[in-house]
Amino acid sequence: MPLFPKLSFFRLDDPSQIYATKVERVAGAYIAKGYPGYPLPLSSETIAALGSLFDSGPDTIPHHLPLQGLLSYNWPAFFLDLYRCLEQLYSAPKLAVLKNQVTHAGSLSDLALLLENILAWRPREEDSLALLLEKIPMEAREGLISAICEGEQTPEATAAKCATHIYRLRNSHVHFRPAMKASAIAPAQWDRIVRAMVRAVSEVYTEYGEAFLEVPAK
User: Fold this and answer.
1) How far apart are CA 178 and CA 75, in angstroms?
2) How many Cβ atoms are within 10 Å of 205's Cβ, its own excluded?
3) What is the distance between the alpha carbons of residues 46 and 52, in angstroms, rounded to a whole number?
């Protein structure tokens, strides 16, 4: 019986609410706020940050990625899911400038697809990450750099430094070359990293998500 807890049922009175169509978002909000346990030892602060992300974060966030991370049994996988949220917006800063020079009726993400398919243009990852992080508050960058560099001399929380350390951490868990061997990170530090990444995702999507993913109204 402990393996099969009682079911809970919820009724949505207003079908116009976003939760009526965003099943990953409502699932994430419910699991973050009411689940009895998590695969990873998440702190109460990180759980609260995730709850806010699902409940009141920008609608353009790809909620299936943080939901997948929330249900993960692996800290690097959780980090990489949040990294992929940022990666989706890598071309947004440059295309936001380009849109003032060209005529394009669709969304910026559609324009990014055209440029990649026709010109084989893709933004450089670390540089693009730095451009995104320039738009988030200094406090959020300080949280990122201090979490990733815990126990080391913490560099200044510039967008470029944050991007370098995030990208290095990403590479160490994606590329299995000896020079990029991943170092051991304690669960408490991973928890801080994940919480800082959740903040970054929310801030970046607040700045770029709608402009990048939504088709402008005619």
Assistant:
1) 21
2) 25
3) 10
